[in-house]
Amino acid sequence: MAMPMSNAEWTVEMLDALPDDGQRYELIDGVLHVTPAPGLPHQLIAGHLYHLLKQYFTRSAVGRPIISPSDVRRGDRTRNHVEPDVFVVRHVDGKLPPYPFAMSDLLLAVEVPSPSDPFYDYQTKRTLYVSNGVPEYWVLNGDARNLSRWRGAADPGDVLSRRVEWQPRGMAAPFALDLPLFFDEAMG
Questions:
Q1: Most buried among 30, 32, 163, 173, using CB within 10 Å?
Q2: What is the per-residue pLDDT across 164-173, written as a single tens digit (0 to 9) for each?
């Protein structure tokens, strides 16, 4: 379960001092959220999506997919640090922007929900990403074998179980994902 840890005000410096104990620690507006280490189904789904996105963006000057752990920050960078499971960073002049990445650098953020606390990915992180300018946010649910998608803060979202297409500006063709096939390949 993603549990906010009690401390008056967490900072990235305090977060960096925590032990490497296999848990995932993220900081949103000074509140520390702790989730268990991802399980095998989570890693299979995230890894397969990363692989497909990497193929799609090969030889592209548009963006580059990244898989966690990797830092994304927003606003006050001393109080905000999240790690989307998979995300695509927009290239600037054909290169990655400076690291750690800003939310405004992302073209896509994807989470695979934790079975212990799906609210964290479907609500808390969705609100964080889409309200900070990430143009597309996905939750890939291996148990339900579907993808929930939001395109901006005002979008009520879609739940897709057959196919999803996404075409960032500058790409000649869309990234198409046959969801039944994707889950079969990822989990099989």
A1: 32
A2: 999 999 999 9
For residue 100, whether the previous peptide bond is cis, meaning omega lies within 30 degrees of 0, is yes
pTM comes to: 0.90
Residues in the chain: 188
| Any domain includes 33 | no
For residue 155, CA distances in Å to 136, 150, 158 come to 10, 6, 9
Q: What CATH code is carried by the domain that includes residue 93? A: 3.90.1570.10
- Counting the structural domains of the chain, the total is 1
Q: Which domain holds residue 77?
A: 38-187
Dump pLDDT digits (tens) for 26-79.
888 888 888 888 889 999 999 999 999 999 999 899 999 999 888 888 766 677
Nearest CA-CA partner of 38 in 121, 98, 109, 104? 121
